[in-house]
Specification:
Distance between the termini: 10 Å
Shape: globular
Number of helices: 13
Largest sheet: 4 strands, mixed
CATH topology of the largest domain: UDP-n-acetylglucosamine1-carboxyvinyl-transferase, Chain
CATH superfamily of the largest domain: Enolpyruvate transferase domain
Structural class: alpha/beta
CATH architecture of the largest domain: Alpha-beta prism
Number of domains: 2
Helix content: 25-40%
Length: 440
């Protein structure tokens, strides 16, 4: 049983099992992109299953300020976007508020860079204003973009002066879907072809969806790391079905594997191979997970995942897997606490510039429960096998930390209390209700 309202600490009772079926919210990455691509397409885009959470709502609010008509975003309702075409976005009268959403801000930079003669200012909450934006601004400058802000353009608020962009070959220093997607959006209005070459393959939702909308885009190179866009093609509105977010499903997959007596089926989960690193780590751990009802929905592989409790082995993974499970590191650090042996997470320095420094926050909060953790510059070493104790915990305003600590609390000896648990609403508004419902 969990209790607590927004703004007040949430009590979390330890013990019990989790049983039943759950359908997690729509994939956050796909939800953002469906709104953005629908806005610059010709005609109407309908989105079934769009995540009705704070981050996609921020994206929709920014697009509305630039003249795009988007229906209200509510649970279980199809969202309609009336596209304004590739160059139809208007200069807004005010600041574009990206809230807490790094995806919104970074993809907006690419979307707006080529709107010749128009000026845009993007800002966000206190957390977003501390997150690095040069990783997008610098590669966009290679196409001729004019992005300025605090700390030499690295920190919001950011000003974008729309420019005529040129095609370019851009090698990105990190495998980041946000960086890649911003470049691809800018490339749609450049004066020639643009190629993006990544050091490793990042999630490919943008490539899949842009092709479905009609962009002239090719994916090649080793492991799909080379993406080329030729400008000139019009985008056409589509019907998009958003699968469940595997990053949200990960909390139930770990909980089902950890909590004695549990058996959970997570329905309608996106199984895009650029996102399924968490399943590979759980397989390495010996978790009992079955994939049922595999199917393709609107170009994305989907399935139901059934997980049941069993003993888990420690794991070790590094930067080769990180682009495919970066958001799942917090919940995997919880899982490591209950494996009999030493687990190691490497190549995860990217987590230090998320909504929080997730490596530091997870180490700090799990240590409060008695976990044996060493924090490194790029990861964590976790020695599992001993009990955790219930205690006072804090999400530190991070949605994935809040949900990870909830699963840790289920496994603790003694009850816990989580401060700022409402952060979960950023990506999973019904998480606490689903946790209550799954208890058996």
């Amino acid at each position: 049983m969990v209790s607590g309202s927004n703004g007040s600490p949430r009590d979390l009772k330890a013990g019990g099992s989790l049983c039943g079926r759950v359908r997690v919210p729509g994939d956050k990455s796909i939800s953002h992109r469906a709104l953005l691509f629908g806005a610059i397409a010709e005609g109407t885009t309908t989105i079934d299953g769009l995540l009705p959470a704070e981050d996609p709502i921020s994206t929709a609010a920014c697009l509305r300020l630039m003249g795009t008509s988007i229906s209200p975003i509510k649970s279980d309702q199809i969202v309609t976007v009336e596209g304004v075409g590739l160059d139809g976005l208007r200069e807004p009268a005010g600041i574009l508020d990206c809230g807490n959403s790094g995806t919104t801000m970074r993809l907006m930079l690419g979307l707006l860079a080529g709107r010749v003669g128009r000026h845009f200012v993007l800002s966000g909450d206190a957390s977003l204003q501390k997150r690095p934006m040069n990783r997008v601004g610098h590669p966009l400058s290679l196409l001729g973009a004019d992005v300025r802000g605090r700390d030499h353009g690295n920190l919001a608020p950011l000003a974008v002066q729309g420019q005529k962009l040129r095609g370019a070959v851009v090698g990105t220093p990190v495998a980041s879907a946000q960086v890649k997607s911003a470049i691809l959006l800018a490339a749609l209005t450049a004066d020639g072809p643009t190629s993006v070459i990544e050091p490793a393959r990042s999630r490919d939702h943008s490539e899949r969806m842009l092709k479905a909308f009609g962009a002239d885009l090719e994916v090649g190179g080793e492991m799909g790391r080379h993406i080329m866009v030729r400008p000139g093609a019009s985008l056409t509105g589509q019907h998009v079905i958003v699968p469940g977010d595997i990053s949200s499903a990960a909390f139930w997959l770990v909980a089902g594997a950890l909590v004695p007596g549990s058996k959970i089926t997570v329905e309608n989960v996106g199984l895009n191979p650029t996102r399924t690193g968490v399943l590979e780590v759980l397989e390495q751990m010996g978790a009992s997970i079955e994939v049922l009802n595999r199917r393709d929905v609107a170009g994305e592989p989907v399935g139901d995942l059934r997980v049941s409790h069993g003993p888990l082995r420690p794991f070790d993974f590094g930067e080769e897997l990180m682009p495919r499970l970066v958001d799942e590191v917090p919940i995997l650090s919880v899982a490591a606490c209950f494996c009999d042996g030493e687990s190691r997470i490497r190549g995860a320095a990217e987590l230090r510039v998320k909504e929080t420094d997730r490596l530091a926050v997870m180490a700090r909060q799990l240590k409060l429960m008695g976990a044996d953790i060493d924090e490194h510059s790029d990861g964590l070493t976790i020695r599992g096998g001993q009990s955790l104790r219930g205690t006072e915990l804090d999400s530190e305003t991070d949605h994935r930390v809040a949900m990870s600590l909830a699963i840790a609390g289920l496994m603790a000896e003694g009850d816990s209390r989580i401060t700022r648990s409402e952060a979960a609403a950023v990506s999973y508004p019904t998480f606490w209700d689903d946790l209550d419902r799954l208890r058996c």
